[in-house]
Amino acid sequence: xxxxxxxxxxxxxxxxxxxxxxxxxxxxxxxxxxxxxxxxxxxxxxxxxxxxxxxxxxxxxxxxxxxxxxxxxxxxxxxxxxxxxxxxxxxxxxxxxxxxxxxxxxxxxxxxxxxxxxxxxxxxxxxxxxxxxxxxxxxxxxxxxxxxxxxxxxxxxxxxxxxxxxxxxxxxxxxxxxxxxxxxxxxxxxxxxxxxxxxxxxxxxxxxxxxxxxxxxxxxxxxxxxxxxxxxxxxxxxxxxxxxxxxxxxxxxxxxxxxxxxxxxxxxxxxxxxxxxxxxxxxxxxxxxxxxxxxxxxxxxxxxxxxxxxxxxxxxxxxxxxxxxxxxxxxxxxxxxxxxxxxxxxxx
Length: 348
Description:
Blueprint: E1 4-9, H1 25-34, E2 39-43, H2 49-59, E3 60-65, H3 75-87, E4 91-93, H4 96-103, E5 122-124, H5 127-137, E6 143-147, E7 156-161, E8 177-182, E9 188-192, H6 193-199, H7 201-204, E10 211-215, E11 224-230, E12 233-241, E13 258-262, H8 268-284, E14 293-302, E15 308-316, H9 328-347
Parallel strand pairs: 1-2, 1-3, 3-4
Antiparallel strand pairs: 5-10, 6-7, 6-10, 7-8, 8-9, 11-12, 11-14, 12-13, 14-15
Helix pairs in contact: 1-9, 2-3
């Protein structure tokens, strides 16, 4: 019996089409079937976890996860099932720990001693740590705080001081007035620093809570550059230019950003720099195989010599969508088959 490629989805969520599937899932299934590789979709249900586990172990050669963890009632149960499948020899696309390692915002902190991420990038896992360190980091210029949960810019804040500090200041006083702009829709709010830090506690408490703190790069106004990757292959580049208004810095469509689709050849310097560092990135993020479909977002900066450099701002791999470019389903199908064949050959 030919083994299948199983695509995992979950019912519900705002990422589904009228048929109940993600709009980019069935194109991948059909592309695999056209190439002679059997494939099907299974909706994960925690109540049927054992039944699903047994079926996939028996019938699948590989799985592809197409679930936004935010749509799961029990994320840990899903990841636990995926780990069991990987331990049983099912090819994970991706392995659940790669999903966590590449997708969590604190991946950036693990890369601060590479040229991809500035050294003054911090992660706060406790409220105490946040309140102790953030007033010091804000001393050195405009900062961006990013929560680990949420999407489309929710809980990502640009924070800047309203007034100059005293010359002998060693940290920003708790009473300092700050201007905060949220990436979700570029709206502005004004706080005292102490009040804002109290407000941010919501991002640290609870499962997977944390805040990442990094310097604001003003060249974001020129656009964020997203590499769309299949394993180690850049397939296309999305240039995401924020809306042309004074406070806009968000590169999401929801916030009014303008998207342009380029070829990897149009961004040779960025692509070559990133690909040359991928082995190091993989090692620092746990040593897992690269995810099947993932993205790396970069912001332009200027180095000490006045040359362009690219700063990694975020990676996503839990469920990267390509609904506006469904023809990429054929690239994905080819990559899945190539990966399966590569692993089968290694096992011989």
